[in-house]
Amino acid sequence: MIVWLNGTFGAGKTTAAHELLDLLPGSTLYDPELLGDGLRLMLPAKRFEEVDDYQDLPSWRRMVVDTAAALLTEVPGPLVTPMTLLRQEYRDEIFGSLAARRIPVRHILLHAEETILRQRMAHREENAENGENAEEAQEPTAVRRWSLAHLEPYADALSWLKGDAHLVDTSRLTPRQTAERVAEALRTGAGACDIVQTPEPTAETLASGVLLFDDQDRVLLVDPTYKAGWEFPGGVVERGEPPAQAGVREVAEELGIELPRAPRLLVLDWEAPQPPGFGGLRLLYDGGTLTDERIGKLLLPGAELRAWRFVTEAEAELLLPPVRWNRLRWALRARERGCPLYLEAGVPVG
Q1: CATH second-level architecture of 205-348?
Q2: Which of 158, 177, 179, 338 could form a cystine bridge with 19, CB 3.0-4.6 A?
Q3: What is the value of pTM for the model shown?
Q4: Per-residue pLDDT, 346
């Protein structure tokens, strides 16, 4: 298990994490920030100039999961992980990949009001200037400026953080008291991330997606909890299952919508392998237009999907990862022409 202590700088994550080690038998401190430091030493400086934060590196996010899995083969766990994680798509990617490895996550948000956070940052800077914190003594002002710059992103992220994590207000708590509150929350099952455990593929896969439309010809997209980015309803075809039937099954399971007939094929796209992904064949079907009554009955399984929305083609381009957007673009053209298209890596062939 991983106990992920989230929160902005000054919330007390690191000090509480060390106290928590005493309260959780067999626990080990796991700090993904060390992975970022390692990447700074190994990757060309130019690569870091292309991102705002090492969390923006796909390699860092992958390493967080792989390293956690490796550590849990060496220690009993849990892993106590004090790490600020404010971008929801990164949370989805990391927590979803951990779920695929059958590693449960308890998400705990250590929160303090902004005035308290600013006071702690100022106190931290003062200690550094007085030589009490050797690690930050060289550039205390720069450290504080960097910390202050993250207050606004944290405030913006609070709406989803409070809905996803168990909140512990640290404003008037000592690190020990914070750790005790966290330990008690863990004992009662708080902070459990009920994410669908989609096994990581070990070879090429066959997947079916279904495009559903409203009366304005907007297409339905869903927001999975277990991976980054918006997606089409659908999923991996099970062994021995007809692909069109797989699409029908996934729509029923994900949204509670029973399609009256097998959907019509729009595109078959060969997705090239991009490590760590294996690629495979991706099919998109036309599930037809939903009436307002059926739209009103759409359901969302909380462990799998966070939200749904109908979007125009232009809006979809802003939401979908490039590979999915390309597939949708050609699927819409195929729908207009009434003729399915064969794609390779998103490009029509023939």
Answers
A1: Alpha-Beta Complex (3.90)
A2: 179
A3: 0.75
A4: 86
Q: Write the pLDDT tens digit of every residue in 151-164.
A: 899 999 999 999 99
What is the C-alpha R_g of the chain? 23
CATH numeric code, 2-187: 3.40.50.300
User: Would you state the pLDDT for residue 276?
Assistant: 74
Domain boundaries, the chain: 2-187, 205-348
Angle at CA 57, nearest 5°, toward 10 and 71? 75
Residues 301-321, mean pLDDT to the nearest whole number: 89
Mean pLDDT of 53-61: 94
| Same fold across 2-187 and 205-348 | no
Q: What is the Cα 265 distance to its own chain's centre?
A: 30
CA distance 175 to 182: 11
* 135 — pLDDT class (breaks 50, 70, 90): very low
